[in-house]
From TrEMBL, chains A, B:
It holds the Pfam family Lipase_GDSL. This is Putative Isoamyl acetate-hydrolyzing esterase. It comes from Zostera marina. It comes from the Eukaryota. InterPro entries: GDSL (IPR001087), Iah1-like (IPR045136), SGNH_hydro_sf (IPR036514).
Length: 236, 236
């Protein structure tokens, strides 16, 4: 049976099968080795995600997953006193929720699957002001980069406590000049380049954990291994 | 549990999670409603695919699929006396193999899933001569468009006999001027535009069978249905 890589997150995950999306890239990269299962929920924070976790993983049998990627925090980090306040989750609860999601995955999905946390991405505040959700007449972004950074730190500390790999995309993106417009289309969601860096960094993180195209078996004989003089001997 | 749409075919299917690929487009289109499961095998004809069909569908439980797409014939149609002759399958056997695959799906995967056949695409012979597989010093393409058309007809007749929907992509593509380079990157595989037309025609074919984003339920509350004043009431 082909193993699964499950991607669990918010809109950045929900949109990941769009053109150039990081889920498409991952599915293509692990072609014939892994099924990528997308569980992305636009607008969701960890509070709502945790409430629904049983339904999210419904139908996924124990042990099917080799890896589960948990990518939340961008909505939790909406500021409590700005236009998206109803999505806000305070940092202590964000950490508790992440830990509860991790425990759920370990108990119900797989005790051996690699669980990778991804921090929220950085915020381009200019992009957020120019692309508000609904009405935002305050002229203030509903998210700030420094707050997203605090959630990224919190995510990293949960990973460290649980001895899990973490992809700090908040820091990684900001290593590059012009990261604001290069990686983010509206100050929050990913451009093609943004998807590419998430994909590449995740592949690298999975490889560190022993999950790579080199280590995973291919499902059926590869075309190049089929003998043109006697093809059927590959299919006995 | 989220239903599955399974895509079973050759390299045109295996490559369908690449950028702009028809599987990515389908997964994104049916976002939060369906899991697209890719089972593409580069180089495979129906003879080899049938031999492996148990392994192909291993781990997919009875009744999980709402649709199975079967997209073979491009390799079967390799000419018996040209450079890819070892992939050739005569038309009568191609039809028998397709029928056996259909029977397998009905018995083992789902008696109610919609099974959609897709014919092989047309062949741009100029593209095949310019992009040979390995050595082809004959100056002759290993596939011709008229032979691919005969396999497309055979596929359509199997669909008709079994009362199944069929997407005749061989004919559909040739309705457009410059189809040879617009839809085919090397005379056989799909360009971005080629992927787009397969995606669009397949969505339309599924819709005719009652499978559409309008008819399929969303898995969890949509963000726009969550009350900002009392979000948690959506998650009871």
């Amino acid at each position: 049976m082909r193993p699964k890589v499950i991607l669990f997150g918010d809109s950045i995950t929900e949109m990941a099968f769009k053109n150039e999306g990081w889920s498409s890239c991952l599915a293509n990269h692990f072609c014939r080795k892994v099924d990528v299962v997308l569980r992305g929920y636009s607008g969701y924070n960890t509070r709502w995600a945790l409430k629904m976790v049983d339904k999210v993983f419904d139908g996924i049998k124990l042990g099917e997953a080799v890896a589960v990627v948990v990518f939340f925090g961008a909505n939790d980090a909406s500021l409590a006193d700005r236009s998206s306040s109803f999505q806000h989750v305070p940092i202590p609860e964000y950490k508790t929720n992440l830990k509860a999601i991790i425990s759920y995955i370990k108990e119900k999905i797989s005790s051996t699957a690699v669980i990778v946390l991804i921090t929220p991405p950085p915020i381009d505040e200019d992009g957020r002001i120019k692309n508000p959700y609904g009405e935002n007449t305050t002229g203030l972004p509903e998210r700030t980069n420094s707050d997203a950074g605090a959630y990224a730190e919190a995510c990293k500390s949960v990973a460290m406590e649980n001895n899990l790999p973490v992809l700090d995309i908040w820091s990684k993106m900001q290593e590059f000049p012009h990261w604001e417009k290069t990686f983010l289309s509206d100050g929050l969601h990913l451009t093609g380049e943004g998807n590419k860096i998430v994909f590449e960094e995740l592949v690298s993180k999975l490889m560190e954990q022993g999950i790579s195209i080199e280590t995973l078996p291919i499902d059926l004989p590869h075309f190049s291994d089929i003998d043109p003089l006697d093809p059927l001997k590959s299919f006995i």
